[in-house]
Structures are given as structure tokens and as C-alpha cells.
Amino acid sequence: MAQPLEDVRPSRSLTTLVLAGALVLLVVVSASVFWRVTRPCGAGAGDPEEAVTGVLAALQDDDERGVCQRVSSDYRIPEDQVVVLRERVGAAGGVAEVTVAEVDEQQMGSLHVVVATAPDGRLVGRFQTIPGQRGAVVVRATTSAVTW
Question: Is 106 a domain residue?
Fold first, then answer.
């Protein structure tokens, strides 16, 4: 007499699948966090506006590593400018309240000029950025209203 065929494939429980998915997600998130923390100074961040927003957020949080990652490796924002930028960002209500916009008519070749303003229109800072292979970096910052 013929025996019926049995399904011999191993079955995976829903719990095993959920745990495996959670483990994969944990590895991906950990790798992303590790890259952000260990990336070298001058690595860049997205577009010119994102680089400036990142610099302002890092200055507000007193995060030297965050500043160095978004500023060109051969440039350091002068300390007097850092103090003024922190004060102006604080007076504006934080980075979330600051408007950051690229000034197209002042673009000089590959240098992009980005202006940060408070909600009331007062100047927070002016920045020159340059896009690189890994994103834009700030190459000059000033709290003066001068145009480059």
C-alpha cells in the first residue's frame, strides 16, 4: 500500500521571523549610527542648505564633532563667530525656527552662498559652501551682512 507524502519542509514560527527581522533592523540602524558618529571631519552633509542647518544645530548643541563633519577639513569657524551664531540661533528660538536659503545670484562657480535668517528677518549668518563627493561642506562663515 502507498503511503501519503508528508511535507518535510521545516516550518518557521512567526516569532522566529519577527526576531530575525528585528535583528536585521537593529544591525542596519547600528551601522547608520556608527557611520554618523565616526565619519571623518569634512565628510559633508547633503546639499548646501542641509550642511548649514547641520552646522547651526551642532553649534546649538555644542557638538564639536558635528561641526567638524560639516565644515571643510581645512577650515575652522572663528570662535567669535561661533559665539555670535549660538546667540543668534538661541534668540531665534532654535535651529528649527531659522530659515536657511541658498542665494543663487551670489553663487561663485562651485561655491554656494547660503543665508540663515531668524523668523523676524534678522541675519543669523552667511555661509559659503562647496558640494563634494560626500555632500556639501561649509568653507566660510560670517555673521556680517557683507555679500561675497
Answer: yes
